Amino acid sequence: MTWGTELWDQFENLDKHTQWGIDFLERYAKFVKERLEIEQTYAKQLRNLVKKYCPKRSKDDEPRFSSCMSFYSILNELNDYAGQREVVAEEMGHNVYGELMRYSQDLKSERKHHLQEGRKAQQYLDQCWKHMDNSKKKFERECKEAEKSQISYDRLDNDINATKSEVEKAKSQLYLRTHSADESKNEYAAQLQNFNGEQWKHFNVAIPQIFKNLQDMDERRTVKLGETYRNFAEVERRVVPIISKCLEGMVTAAKAVDQRKDSAIVVESFKSGFEPPGDFPFEDYSQNLSRTGSDNTISTPKNEGVVKPDPKHSISKAAKNKLWLFGKKPKSPPSSPPPAPKFASDPIAFCLSELRTVKPRIASFRGLKRGAPSLEDFSHLPPEQRRKRLQARIDELSKELQKEVDQRDALNKMKDVYEKNPQMGDPQSLQPKISETMCNMEKLRSEIHKNESWLSEVEGKVSTRGDRRPSADVNHHTPHGRERSEGTETRCLCGNEFDDEFDNDDPLPVLGHCKALYSFDGQNEGTLLMKEDDVLYIIEEDKGDGWTRARKQSGEEGYVPTSYVEIAMEKNSKGAVTYI
């Protein structure tokens, strides 16, 4: 079926139908536009969501738990998923919406052209019909005039009273009217024949061709809509494999969650390296009470009622100074004041008993959180954590040293090439760079050696902690210039036997830390050179003269202006002494 033959008289309806088709196409284009805007908004919101929950810390601060790493992997996959939604929106905008709008403009111009041709053909046919109609009316008018002339002539010709001149005049008038009627008849016949021909051409050639063009245009519009429907689905189908990979990545990340690994990481992150505290020995305060045999109470022999402290489980300084759970050492049960000490009988047991009443200087990490500065040798950390930090620093310094070694070797090779081929360059120009590299290597080696000494110290303490005897723990001193890794040392001076162990050469105890607010040259004798932001140990407070005695991490001591530093004093229990 063709519109030209079946709908030859439906020009106005075809005009309306083609306009409706273009409006429908533009309506679908608007639908696609709103759909791609939804995709763009969805992708943008997904990216904002990923950005909101992505870690903003450095890689060193990121948690290493498998659950966290899986969550970050899911965020990455979700970010890729958002990218695919953006691809969908972009392809819909280019391949569907843009194509529809361009095609709509082409359809509008083509439809306008065909309708103009149809209107022109209709106007020409109307013009031919008017010419034919005018000639017809003229022929009809001339025939009526000729008939009147014929009647007038016949009346005068039969009238005996009419003169000859009147008859001749009526006859000539009849002749003229008849001649005019014949001419109008011929003109009307010609116009009628012409109109019939043009009308046939109009309804059998021109209009069918115009309507056929309109039909082809409308069918192409329908085909284009079908193609865009398919493209609309193909855009989604093309990203389905990638989206499936994103979802598979999320499932893989979920399977990577390992609770045992996370538990091991917790142990590795927070393990202090301290040994659990030993049993408290029984202290019999009833030894000085005299009992009689007449008493009905059950008496306990001295040798059987007293539990002798086990040297392996006695409370050493390391156990007293460990970082207890929740930051506080459990208090011993309240009891009556102990009897006077007897140094001659058991001085070690007495000192250990005294140690139990003294709180460590640094009982938990909370003291560090209150603003205590970090130390270069990480002595503010527990042994295990300190060992890990030192080992990480040694590894990093070793990598830097290897880079410097490679750079030195490369410079030496380049120098040899310059010496063999002077035209390529001056060998002496590389000497400053080689010297600088050698200097950097020496600095790095020195740093590595220093950190290795600290590491060996920590490893030695960790390995021998469980084997120490109480006396060794009490009398142990840390190397000069640094704090002990366990925190601080507490001791009591309880007799002449122990006074000999702590002679006058021991360094002064650390009372706190300070941070240099300004640089100080320290040119005068007894003063200490410091730079801004240096961290020093306070070993003697300001006595009112404006000077504070401090010690560097290297062991160098001297006085610094009190107003030049920001002091953070340690809160020690009475009787506690801290050594570095």
TrEMBL record:
Q: What are its GO biological-process terms?
A: endocytosis; signal transduction
According to UniProt, the name of this protein is Formin binding protein 1-like
Q: Which InterPro entries match?
A: AH/BAR_dom_sf, F_BAR_dom, FCH_dom, HR1_CIP4_FNBP1L, HR1_rho-bd, HR1_TOCA, SH3-like_dom_sf, SH3_domain
Domain annotation SH3: ranges: 509-570
The UniProt entry's GO CC annotations, sorted and at most eight, read: cell cortex; cytoskeleton; plasma membrane
Entry annotated with the keyword Membrane: yes
Q: Where in the cell is it found?
A: Cell membrane; Cytoplasm, Cell cortex; Cytoplasm, Cytoskeleton
- Domain REM-1 spans what residues? 380-457
Q: Which domain of life is it from?
A: Eukaryota
Q: Which organism is it from?
A: Oncorhynchus mykiss (Rainbow trout)
Q: Which PROSITE patterns match?
A: F_BAR, REM_1, SH3
- Ranges annotated as biased composition (Polar residues): 290-302
- Keyword list, A-Z: Cell membrane, Coiled coil, Cytoplasm, Cytoskeleton, Endocytosis, Lipid-binding, Membrane, SH3 domain
Q: Which is an annotated GO molecular function term of this record?
A: lipid binding
Name of the gene encoding the protein in the UniProt record: LOC110521552
SMART domains on file: FCH, SH3
Q: Which residue stretches, if any, does this entry annotate as coiled coil?
A: 387-421
Family annotation (CDD domains): HR1_CIP4_FNBP1L (cd11628)
F-BAR domain: residues covered: 1-262
State the SUPFAM superfamilies in the record.
BAR/IMD domain-like, SH3-domain
Tell me one Pfam family matched here.
SH3_9
Q: Which family does it belong to?
A: Belongs to the FNBP1 family.
List every stretch annotated Disordered.
290-314, 460-488
